[in-house]
Design brief:
The protein is an alpha+beta fold and 149 residues long. The chain has five helices and four strands; from the N terminus they run ααβαββαβα. A four-stranded antiparallel sheet has the order 2-3-1-4. Belongs to the CutA family.
């Protein structure tokens, strides 16, 4: 169906979009445009990752600053005002927390784990690593370059 958002863009349509100033999508665009290529292989040390950490409000800013100052991550976003419900000591618990979204590389995860466990007040802090499957190449390069300095 012409105009359907779920169909593949043809080579001719991609070229027409490029000349019209629109961004092409699909395999043809990935082959031509480095800004829409896939990031490196998930699981390698050069893979960008987003690490999720929850922390009490009173320590989240200090934790974020320490991570950035040590160049373990390129960016930490602190999202305030989340409510976490979880099992602890055989009881349902509820805590008001902040969520830290940490943009780093897989090669920095071990250092991040050490820092978080050293500075975090929880006995078992939440720390989950998600590989970035795709992203804007200049942003992914910025993460890698920032950490490498």
């Amino acid at each position: 169906m012409p105009g359907s958002p779920h169909r593949e863009v043809t080579s001719q349509e991609a070229e027409t979009r490029e000349t019209a100033g629109q961004q092409a999508t699909g395999p043809q665009a990935e082959a031509r445009d480095p800004a829409v290529r896939k990031s490196s292989v998930a699981g390698s040390d050069s893979t960008a990752v987003i690490v999720w950490v929850t922390a009490p409000a009173e320590v989240s800013a200090g934790l974020a600053s320490a991570i950035i100052e040590k160049r373990i991550a390129a960016c930490v976003q602190v999202v305030p005002g989340i409510s976490s419900y979880f099992w602890w000591d055989n009881q349902v618990q509820q805590e008001g927390e902040h969520l830290l979204l940490i943009k780093t590389m897989r090669s920095s995860v071990a250092a991040l784990k050490s820092l978080v466990t050293a500075l975090h007040p929880y006995e078992v802090p939440e720390l989950l690593v998600t590989a970035v499957q795709d992203g804007l190449d200049p942003y992914l390069a910025w993460i890698q370059e920032t950490i490498a300095r």
